[in-house]
Amino acid sequence: QDINAYNGEQPEEKLPFPIIADANRELAVKLGMLDPDERDKDGMPLTARVVFVFGPDKKLKLSILYPATTGRNFDEILRVVDSLQLTAYKKVATPVDWKPGDSVMVVPTLPDEEAKKLFPKGVFTKGLPSGKKYLRYTPQP
């Protein structure tokens, strides 16, 4: 109820995401969700703000541990989920600071001929001092 109230919603409303009550902190300890630096009045480590993203294959795809003193960045979490979904189904990777709609990188293991067939909007190589052509980009499929 406190989480809903903080977000300005009716405390009776069901949360739009799963949440687990862990009053004894057993799960937090088991999953390493404790802030190593921040402690409560009794000297116990505070529970950190941890985000776990699991794929449909039930494998961990992402974990982010924010210190207890730092709030989560939901824009970043959503950006990463968009990237994980895109890269799971297309043979691309997302570069630093990528946002949905930006160009993506063609995975280096994909041969040039196959890349041309998979990405009809074109594949563009970034020129590098080494002359190597491993940074290939394409508009987001």
UniProtKB/TrEMBL annotation:
GO MF annotations, alphabetized: peroxiredoxin activity
One Pfam assignment: 1-cysPrx_C
Sequence ranges assigned to domain Peroxiredoxin C-terminal in this UniProt record: 83-121
Keywords: Antioxidant, Oxidoreductase, Peroxidase
GO terms of biological process kind: cell redox homeostasis
GO CC annotations on file: cytosol; mitochondrion
InterPro entries xrefs: Peroxiredoxin_AhpC-typ, Peroxiredoxin_C, Thioredoxin-like_sf
Keyword DNA-binding in annotation: no
Classification via PANTHER family: MCG48959-RELATED (PTHR43503), PEROXIREDOXIN-6 (PTHR43503:SF4)
Descriptive protein name: PRDX6 protein
Taxonomic source organism: Pelecanoides urinatrix (Common diving petrel)
Phylogenetic placement of the source organism: Eukaryota, Metazoa, Chordata, Craniata, Vertebrata
